[in-house]
Amino acid sequence: MFAFLGARQWLRPQGACASIPKMTEKPNEKQSMTPKGDTVKLGYLIPQFPGQTHIFFWREISGLEAMGADVTLMSTRRPPSGLISHDWSDHAIARTSYLGEYGAGSVLTSLLHLRPWHWWRDIEGLSSIRDILICLPAARRMIAACRARNIKHVHVHSCGRAALIAALAQKMGGPSYSLTLHGPVSDYGPMQGFKWRGASFGTVITEKLLSEIRRDIGADLPDRLVVQPMGVDTNDLRRDTVYEPADLKEPIRLFSCARLNVVKGHQDLMAAVRILVDQGLNIQLDIAGEDDDGGNGFHNDLAARLHDLGLQDHVRLLGAISAQKVHEHLLKTHIFALASWHEPLGVAYMEAMSCGVPTIGTNAGGVPELIRDGVDGVLTPPQNPEALADAILVLIRNPDRAKTLAAAGRARILDRFHSNIGAECILTQIAALVGQK
Fold first, then answer.
1. Distance CA 97, CA 356 (A)
2. How many CB atoms lie within 10 A of CB 284?
3. Rounded to 10 degrees, what is the CA torsion of 357, 362, 363, 368?
4. Are 360 and 377 within 8 A, CB to CB?
5. What is the full DSSP assignment across 134-157?
């Protein structure tokens, strides 16, 4: 039916995706593999697309299309306007089918199409019933969209309601589906067994999450489950000039980028800046990102904290900015730091490392699978502004160390975390499934 990557590839049921090439340092080289035979028509479902953190998905979509896939974008609904910041957002919105933005639909009719009836055993209280009633009309719309485009498989980048939409659609005779887990499964709502049991395959972004989902989901997991980290476009996220470390005679530029949420630790980074300023250092910190309410939530708390610390001359909250602006800030900064309390992996770290910027993170969640402390970056304990300030100070006072880590970070991303890795993994897994039929 379909032929991918030149031949069908059978993968181990568990473990990392195989046959993933390293990216090169050539800035304009596009490493892609055009599949021979029929073109795969793939549905690609992302919640609230395109949001401020969705550049990773856009890169993966580009990778899929470069490899010959015909990708139809789907989403639950648009994000708040304050979180739409990319220069590609309008194009993405125009080509996305929003499953939750039309009439209520007939829930009863949808229920009558669900087979077999024993799936009701998966209901876990009122929250499950509410999610089902919300998702059923969207599931029917997904089926209609897939049939209209002859789409046989949908990949879902979520294990929340988007996964439930795909699972319900399959029960009503819709396409097969696969899932990617981006964080602790406990964050994605009820009916996880139901969502995973029907999946053709799953990808998990870290070994830590794989261990957790094996423990929590167990026998309901699909036979085909692989570890597949996120990746970034190393052709775009690069520097054409040599990295220059901080000079104590000049302002020391720090940069951080993540949505504004207490777990991202921006308040800890500001406290670390206060410590360094009190030591006589001229620190300038820019924080890019916005809260989930488009600037009306945690942004206000951080602004108040900034004022309480007396850092008005040293810290700026930039709000949601485009990927191009993030790149520009990375090329100008001396150090990238993100003090997350918990991070499944961290695309923001990858972007900084890909740009050859010495990167400081926290040894929380899956970050140690990306940053090897002292090898290609620095890790500090979460919620510890003093340790964070010390780590920043070490890089300021040791420019050769900063340059070494900048180069090592870039090499780390080229080796393991380039953007085509996810696209190739999805196509390889689908090819293996086709080979089983």
1. 37
2. 17
3. -30
4. yes
5. HHHHHHHHHHHHHHHHT--EEEES
Spell out the SS3 assignment of 68-95.
Answer: CCEEEEEECCCCCHHHCCCCCHHHHHHC
**3-class secondary-structure state, position 181:** strand
Strand partners, 253: 284
Question: Which domains, and CATH codes, for the chain?
Answer: 41-231+418-436 (3.40.50.2000), 252-416 (3.40.50.2000)
Distance (Å, whole) CA 55 – CA 88: 9
CA distance 431 to 225: 14
Q: In which residue are the tokens 């697309």 written?
A: 49
Burial of 37: CB neighbours in 10 Å, binned 0-12, 13-18, 19+: exposed
Distances (CA, A) of 260 to 20, 290, 291, 356: 33, 5, 4, 24
Euclidean distance between the first and the last CA atom of the chain, given in angstroms as a whole number:
10
Give the pair of three-digit tokens for residue 71: 């990708």
How does DSSP assign 242-301, residue by residue?
------TTSPEEEEEES---GGG-HHHHHHHHHHHHHTT--EEEEEEB--TTSSSSHHHH
The two tokens of residue 168 are: 């319900």
Task: Evaluate whether 77 touches 98 at the Cβ level (below 8 Å).
Answer: yes
Torsion of CA 173, 177, 181, 184, to 10 degrees: 10
Alpha-carbon distance values, 388 to 195, 202, 361, 391 (Å) = 39, 36, 9, 5
Q: ω before 382 within 30° of 0 (cis)?
A: no
SS3 63: helix
* H or E element that contains 361: strand 359-362
Q: Please, is 131 exposed, middle or buried when counting C-beta atoms within 10 Å of its C-beta (0-12, 13-18, 19+)?
A: buried
What is the full per-residue pLDDT of the chain (437 aa) written as tens digits?
333 333 223 223 334 454 333 333 433 333 433 344 468 899 999 999 998 788 889 989 998 999 999 999 999 998 887 777 788 889 999 999 999 854 444 555 555 555 555 556 666 667 788 888 889 889 999 999 999 999 999 999 999 999 999 999 999 899 999 999 999 999 999 999 999 999 999 999 999 999 999 999 999 999 999 999 988 999 999 999 999 999 999 999 999 999 999 999 999 999 999 999 999 999 999 999 999 888 999 999 999 999 999 999 999 999 999 889 999 999 999 999 999 999 999 999 999 999 999 999 999 999 999 999 999 999 999 999 999 999 999 999 999 999 999 999 999 999 999 888 889 999 999 888 776 65
